[in-house]
Design goal:
417 residues; mainly alpha; 0% strand; elongated
């Protein structure tokens, strides 16, 4: 690359400063999300994971980095192959998290669909008949419209009017009600029978069968009203909130998406298990290889190195023996002190009392051998020959102490000491 030899002019410096002010990094949310994972891209496994895909899916790459770090610390890989195995396990575990989020998404989707269907039913139920075209009502009747509160209320009101008018002998209104409810194009057998009764009563209101025809007409009109009332009640029962059984049914795997997710989850579990078994087997083989290499190096060692190794082992064994002996002595001393404080050693106290009495007799017998002086201490006027037995006794005690004798100086000591 050719180096610049000419210095920058003032204009060039000012232009570069202005351009630098324009480069302030991403400003939009999409740009900030895109550069958020730059810190975790520069690692050993940076090229193995599509961080941009994670961001597009609403995932945080730092969570994957934390999962990888946790597995790395727990599994403690020792070489490059083991590091790759740990990375594969981290990737499979991340895919397993995605599978679990997918299952939760399907459950949430079914619950939302249940709530949406109920809201849609309420919207349809609250619909009125004002916006319905009149030609459609005349041709097909109100009964062919979608179920709604206005539909059932209008039909029951019309049949109530038809029943009242038929009781008064005004049968033309009853025929008009049938036309409004069921329309003109398609009449069922039941509607045709009602129209026939109305026609007979209209033409011959005082005929021999008019009374019976009127009674049957009123009965059938009342049955029609009761039928539509029962349909309305049944519709209201379906408008209730979702039951707990319906909510629980949303958690049951259903459809192709659920089958695909369950197969993927089983496959991921098998792959993770296989990876983990391969990893531990690899670590076992690596340890065996290290031990074998150590044994080979040990066989190839010089006599001086072998002697030094044996000397070190002997020293460690001797040191461990001394430590165990010291621990035993400390433990015995602590137990003895504890037993003395608790008053659980009566034989020892009896023996100590006998020893004290024997000590008192010995002191009384030796009192006559001491020089006559104040407090048993010889003065400077006494001859030095009196100190000879004491010196001899001291030498005897020193010799007995060095030989491990049980004779002790006749001093009154506390049993605890």
């Amino acid at each position: 690359m050719k180096k610049r030899t000419k210095p920058l002019t003032e204009r060039q410096i000012e232009s570069r400063r202005e351009n630098a002010q324009k480069s302030t990094g991403p400003r939009t949310e999409m740009g900030k999300e895109r550069v958020r994972a730059n810190a975790v891209k520069s690692g050993y496994h940076a090229d193995k994971i599509a961080y941009q895909a994670m961001i597009a899916l609403g995932e945080d790459p730092r969570e994957y980095a934390a999962t990888y770090a946790l597995l790395y610390e727990e599994m403690a890989p020792q070489n490059g192959g083991q590091v790759l195995m740990v990375e594969d396990v981290a990737v499979l575990r991340w895919q397993q998290n995605r599978n679990q989020r997918g299952q939760a998404g399907l459950i949430g989707k079914q619950l939302e669909e249940l709530a949406r269907r109920r809201n849609k039913q309420w919207i349809t139920y609250e619909r009125t008949l004002d916006d319905t075209p009149q030609e459609e009502v005349i041709a097909h009747g109100i009964a062919c419209l979608a179920d709604s509160k206005g539909k059932y209320e209008r039909i029951m009101d019309l049949f109530e009017i038809a029943f009242e008018q038929a009781q008064k002998g005004k049968y033309d209104d009853a025929d008009m009600v049938l036309t409004i409810v069921y329309g003109k194009e398609k009449d069922s057998m039941h509607t045709v029978r009602l129209r026939g009764r109305i026609k007979v009563l209209t033409e011959t209101p005082d005929g021999p069968t008019a009374k019976d025809e009127k009674k049957w007409l009123l009965y059938e009109l009342n049955e029609e009203r009761l039928k539509w009332n029962a349909a309305w009640v049944e519709l209201l029962e379906t408008m209730r909130p979702p039951s707990q059984a319906e909510i629980n049914a949303c958690f049951v795997p259903q459809g192709k998406a659920w089958r695909a997710l369950t197969r993927q989850a089983a496959s991921l579990d098998q792959r993770i298990d296989k990876k983990m078994r391969l990893y531990w087997e690899m670590q076992k083989k690596d340890r065996e290889r290290i031990v074998r290499r150590y044994e080979e190096e040990k066989l190839e060692a010089t006599p001086e190195e072998v002697a030094a190794d044996q000397e070190g082992k002997a020293f460690m064994e001797k040191l461990m023996g001394l430590i165990r002996e010291m621990d035993a002595k400390l433990k015995a001393t602590a137990e003895a002190r504890q037993a003395t404080k608790a008053g659980e050693t009566e034989p020892e106290l009896t023996e100590q009392a006998g020893r004290n009495s024997h000590k008192g007799n010995t002191t009384a017998s030796t009192a006559s051998q001491k020089p006559d002086c104040a407090d048993g201490v010889p003065t400077g006027d006494e001859p030095s020959a009196a100190s000879a037995p004491a010196s001899e006794q001291s030498e005897e005690l020193v010799e007995n102490k060095g030989a491990g004798s049980e004779n002790k100086p006749e001093t009154e000591l506390d049993p605890v000491d």
